[in-house]
Design goal:
The protein has 178 residues and is of the alpha+beta class. The chain contains 4 helices and 8 strands. The protein has a single domain, classed as Immunoglobulin-like. The radius of gyration is 21 Å and the shape is globular.
């Protein structure tokens, strides 16, 4: 029963497109610059007191990038990246790039936040960003990678290169026996 619902969920998941790594390199650099600027602002606000550079960097990173849960698993024939996205990212708000040994995910979405406090309540637009670069334990085949999003769940299945070669060798051996 549980396996059937998992299969049904995969069938209803929205496929997402892969982006070339060149498209993400510029965006990665922009995110790094945002974190760097914010860390410097924190340093300025403290009166230029040295010795807190790592704390400033980590705090800036938390302000610029939203934390999210993710897991990288290796099965017999594939490397699987599973993540619980913060909020509801759509496929057009995510950019995913897969290289033989590297997975890069960048997401950005705007959402409205109602601010309350001393002043009257008002709505603000805020940008929620995610970023992750994973170095993969084995070579994968980017051309056969699948990316699916269902609600707040992201699943990226990256077939191993060795598994693809073995499959081709078995198919070749089976066809040569005729």
């Amino acid at each position: 029963m549980r396996e059937l619902s998992a299969v049904r969920q995969r069938e209803t998941a929205t496929p997402a497109k892969l982006a070339p790594v060149q498209d993400l390199l510029h965006r990665q650099s922009e995110i790094h610059d945002m974190i760097e600027r914010r860390a410097y602002e924190l340093f300025e606000n403290r009166g230029y007191i040295h010795g807190h550079d790592l704390k400033d960097w980590f705090n800036a990173e938390l302000e610029v990038l939203h934390p999210w849960r993710h897991d990288l698993k290796e099965s017999g024939g594939a490397v699987i990246f599973l993540a619980q996205l913060p909020g509801s990212f759509t496929p057009d708000q995510l950019s995913v790039s897969v290289e033989p040994r590297c997975l890069t995910i960048i997401g950005e979405r705007e959402h409205n936040v109602i601010s309350r406090g001393d002043r009257p309540a008002h709505t603000e637009k805020r940008t929620q960003r995610i970023f992750r670069m994973e170095h993969l334990p084995v070579d994968v085949d980017p051309s056969r990678t699948t990316v699916k999003i269902e609600g707040d769940l992201l699943e990226i299945v990256m077939p191993k290169v060795a598994a693809a070669k073995k499959h081709r060798e078995k198919a070749k051996a089976a066809s040569s026996q005729k």
